[in-house]
């Protein structure tokens, strides 16, 4: 029997390895390679134990004794390794108790040392001489490995006091990134550029670092600041209201609305006021990309309000556009506006002169992707003509149910005409799904045209009533327009025409 040649401890070691191996092999798939290596090491020691039994009587007794002791010692190390993984990586997590990785390693190492002392004691080693020798050796090692021990103790301290954890975002000196690993010697962080930076633990313990985002937060937030300058002639309340309204209503990925964004007047420069928009990131990773997106929204919001970003008064413009060039630019823009108007059925009955006059009254109103053009229920002050880009119209049921997509419109489309022409509140919420170049037209923009040609109200009312039927269907519970639906009765057109006449005072 092979067991007859093994040491008395071997059967117990084999049993423990089999039981614990079955317990941890499936849960610890990430440790699969380490488990296999430990198992191979155990089998090697077991073969050494068996060899010692087979060679007994053929080799000197002392040699066989130490071969067996070394084999048993190795078997014990393998068993301790398996037991440590089972206890700290399977049992403790199931009990919802988290133990720092370095602390678990130290406890396992202490167990290794105790097992070594036990085997030495059983082998007849005198501990008084051993401790005297080890004390001197320890002093020499401690002096020669100060940095290594500092890194080791630093890593242990970081994990013990939870001042730094894997998943935190930190900034130290000019380096910032996400903590991906805390080892005995170093802490590794992954920067936004994808670089893996290794920082000695002793360096972290001796220097100040900032925890940008703590993973223990419900949402790991980081505050960002975007600065811009506006001419002193513009009222600060107007600037802050325009910017904050855009940021709070737009759908900007990675921008948190809790805590609320702030737009602050920070300082005065030569001819301009300096503002800061402060907002919070949901994910600190794409910080510069989010800053760029926010700047686009700030610029679009200011342009819609007719507010230009300011330059210092000292700036000298060396190139002056001549009058002919300015006229050419103005003519191209006017032609573009006329083309946009001509493609809209609402203005199909307008003459060329009326379209040209209407084009002069349009106001540029750009929107960034995610901006809200207007909200359902708001008072209608103007309509929008889209020159480029796309927007979606969403309808909110009266009972507060989920929004429904009504339509997606692109270049040559118009939004908000129903509310402007009748004075009724907005019937939908319109959101830009791409950057949009649009023109804004208010009531006064074509009121004089309607007054001069009251018969236009009849054609406009027919078009508006056709669009109004879509909202009527939604409010009645229909998801789509009825196929083959006929034009609404003339009486409904007459009612709508009457509203248009009353709204414009015809």
Span of the ends, CA to CA: 114 Å
As a percent range, the share of helical residues equals 40-55%
Shape: elongated
Give me the CATH architecture of the largest domain, please. Sandwich
Structural category is alpha+beta
Strand order of the largest sheet: 4-3-2-1-5
InterPro entries: cNMP-bd_dom (IPR000595), cNMP-bd_dom_sf (IPR018490), LSM_dom_sf (IPR010920), MscS_beta-dom_sf (IPR023408), MscS_channel_2nd (IPR006685), MscS_channel_C_sf (IPR011066), RmlC-like_jellyroll (IPR014710)
Transmembrane segments: 12-28, 35-55, 70-92, 99-118
Protein name: Mechanosensitive ion channel protein MscS
Subcellular location: Cell membrane
Describe, in plain words, how this protein is organized in 3D.
With 506 residues, the chain is an alpha+beta fold. The chain folds into 4 domains: 2-144; 161-213, SH3 type barrels (Roll), CATH 2.30.30; 222-304, Alpha-Beta Plaits (2-Layer Sandwich); 325-504, Jelly Rolls, CATH 2.60.120.10. Helices cover 49% and strands 18% of the residues. The strands form 4 sheets. Strands 4-3-2-1-5 form a 5-stranded antiparallel sheet. Strands 6, 7, 8 and 9 form a 4-stranded antiparallel sheet that branches. α1 (10-24) runs parallel beside α3 (61-94), α2 (32-55) packs antiparallel against α3 and α14 packs across α15 (490-504). The protein is elongated. Residues 346-467 form the Cyclic nucleotide-binding domain.
């Amino acid at each position: 029997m092979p067991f007859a040649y093994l040491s008395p401890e071997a059967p117990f070691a084999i049993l423990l390895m089999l039981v614990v191996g079955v317990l941890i092999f499936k849960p610890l798939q990430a440790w699969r390679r380490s488990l296999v290596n430990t198992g191979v090491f155990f089998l090697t020691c077991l073969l050494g134990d068996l060899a010692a039994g087979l060679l007994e009587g053929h080799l000197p007794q002392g040699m066989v004794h130490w071969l067996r002791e070394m084999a048993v010692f190795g078997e014990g190390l393998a068993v301790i390794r398996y037991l440590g993984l089972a206890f700290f990586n399977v049992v403790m997590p199931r009990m919802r108790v988290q133990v720092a990785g370095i602390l678990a390693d130290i406890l396992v190492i202490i167990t290794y040392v105790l097992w070594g002392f036990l085997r030495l004691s059983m082998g007849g080693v005198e501990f008084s001489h051993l401790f005297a020798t080890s004390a001197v050796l320890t002093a020499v090692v401690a002096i020669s490995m100060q940095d290594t021990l500092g890194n080791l103790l630093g890593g242990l301290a970081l994990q013990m006091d939870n001042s730094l954890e894997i998943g935190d975002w930190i900034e130290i000196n000019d380096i910032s990134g996400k903590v991906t690993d805390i080892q005995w010697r170093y802490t590794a962080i992954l920067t936004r550029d994808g670089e893996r930076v290794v920082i000695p633990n002793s360096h972290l313990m001796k220097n100040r670092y900032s925890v940008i985002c703590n993973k223990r937060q419900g949402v790991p937030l980081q505050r960002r600041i975007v600065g811009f300058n506006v001419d002193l002639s513009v009222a600060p309340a107007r600037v802050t209201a325009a910017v904050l309204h855009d940021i709070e209503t737009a759908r900007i990925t990675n921008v948190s609305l809790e805590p609320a964004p702030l737009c602050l007047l920070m300082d005065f420069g030569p001819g301009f006021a300096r503002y800061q928009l402060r907002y919070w990131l949901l994910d600190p990773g794409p910080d510069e990309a989010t800053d760029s997106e926010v700047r686009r929204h700030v610029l679009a919001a200011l342009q819609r309000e007719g507010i230009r970003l300011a330059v210092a008064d000292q700036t000298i413009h060396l190139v002056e556009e001549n009058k002919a060039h300015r006229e050419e630019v103005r003519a191209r823009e006017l032609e573009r506006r006329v083309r946009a108007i001509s493609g809209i059925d609402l203005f199909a009955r307008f003459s060329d002169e009326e379209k040209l006059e209407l084009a002069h009254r349009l106001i540029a109103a750009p929107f960034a992707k995610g901006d809200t053009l207007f909200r359902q229920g708001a008072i209608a002050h103007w309509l929008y003509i889209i020159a480029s880009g796309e927007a979606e119209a969403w309808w909110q049921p009266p009972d507060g149910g989920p929004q429904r997509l009504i339509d997606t419109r692109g270049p040559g489309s118009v939004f908000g005409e129903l509310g402007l022409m009748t004075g009724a509140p907005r019937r939908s919420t319109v959101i830009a799904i791409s950057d949009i170049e649009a023109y804004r037209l208010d009531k006064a923009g074509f009121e004089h045209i309607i007054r001069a040609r009251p018969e236009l109200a009849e054609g406009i009312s027919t078009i508006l009533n056709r669009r109004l039927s879509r909202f009527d269907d939604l409010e009645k519970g229909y998801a789509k327009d009825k196929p083959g639906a006929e034009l609404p009765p003339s009486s409904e057109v007459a009612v709508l025409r009457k509203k248009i006449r009353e709204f414009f005072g015809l």
